[in-house]
Design brief:
Elements (H helix, E strand, L loop, with lengths): L2 H18 L3 H11 L5 H16 L1 H8 L4 H11 L5 H7 L12 H7 L10 H4 L7 H8 L3 H8 L5 E5 L6 H7 L6 E2 L6 E4 L14 H4 L3 E3 L2 H9 L7 E4 L6 H9 L5 E5 L3 H4 L2 H8 L4 E4 L15 E7 L14 H4 L2 H19 L2 E11 L8 H10 L3 E3 L2 H5 L6 H7 L1 E2 L4 E3 L1 H4 L4 E8 L1
Parallel strand pairs: 5-6, 5-8, 6-7, 8-9
Antiparallel strand pairs: 1-3, 1-4, 2-3, 9-13, 10-13, 11-12, 12-13
Helix pairs in contact: 1-2, 1-3, 2-3, 3-5, 4-5, 13-14
Length: 433
Amino acid sequence: MTPGARLSAAIEVLAEIENRRRPAADALKDWGLSHRFAGSGDRAAIGGLVFDALRRRSSAAHLMGASTPRAVLFGALRLERGMSLDAIARLADGVRYAPPPPDQAEAKALAAARLPDDTPAHVRGDYPQWLDPYFAAVFGEERAEEGAALSRRAPVDLRVNTLKTDRATAAAAVAHLHAAATPWSPTGLRIALSAEAKSPPLHAEPAFIDGLIEIQDEGSQLATLLSGARPGETVVDLCAGGGGKTLALAALMANSGRVVATDTDIRRLAPIHARVARAGAHNVEIRTPRGDADLLADLAGAVDLVLIDAPCTGVGAWRRNPDAKWRVRPGALELRIKAQDAALESAARLVKPGGRIAYITCSLLDEENGARVRAFVALHPEFAVTPAGEVAGALGADAMRFLTAVKVSAEGLLMTPRRTGTDGFFVSMMRRS
């Protein structure tokens, strides 16, 4: 396919996403199945254009003065990829399935170098307008910059599995992918991707198949590290899902002690079995939901650490799921808050005296973060929030540098793409007296 034909296809897919409110991945998959002449490179390029448009949907529409798929794609090429009017006109020349050339109004809009100074924060930050008060409560006048950072393409982060290897050896194994050490996590590697780059097929890499590396954002790695799990402890991963943090806990504990992984949704838990085996994590015990059975009754009052990777709106992961931010609705926030409070209540009964709860979300909203911690501590005065400096101590010599980068509150630490170069993660530690 020509570059212009790829742009036409991206406009078609974006229209399908918006008209039918479909997840981008599903719409792209269906387009590929119905256009089998398109090669893998074509599909990757079209996907890149679609995701760029979703990342910059609000600002691109504002720049163009229209919110049609064509306008948003053109605006994203200007704002996200920095293409000039002439470059866009060469791409959209109406030849060989390319879109028609920019008209006079489109050309005038594309000639602008940036958005007007009076552009609203939610437009500059490319997030839904209804979330602006929530962003303002956390970030104030910096909310547009925080949102804009959430709209950029994320790198691919890897966690080195220290149960099997070290970072230098793992880096050598994926040297052809140009992986570099992450700035914060001592077990992280990062693969930077350009706007048009295709994500590498990591699941086919020998280092992945052999369990030397796992795909995990550096923020997620740090959240696990900050939990302070130690060898020999009994740890419960209460919302284990696919097992990313479970495996990181097992490695942090050097395969010593006990990690009990469970989840309320059996479907989310399904991938964990193969991942645990591949990683060589021998201290992990998986407890699969069985109706209304209380899977953790035997651990009540006996656990050193409960890690809650709480179900949330996923605001902090928008770099990886840019279509999700336009689908989230206020009602979803209310439902997530109920699930978060329920998870904290479940954790409280498990923790022994002197034990801890690590409450983690990939959200930036105080309603899901600090507010949940405040509500929990008010109901459970036997728990106290661990000071941020003590939590960051898990990073050793990097603790003070990390504390100056993150947003610190009385309830915990908040990582964001703008501040730490990671996905957005909130971490709060609470200890039982």
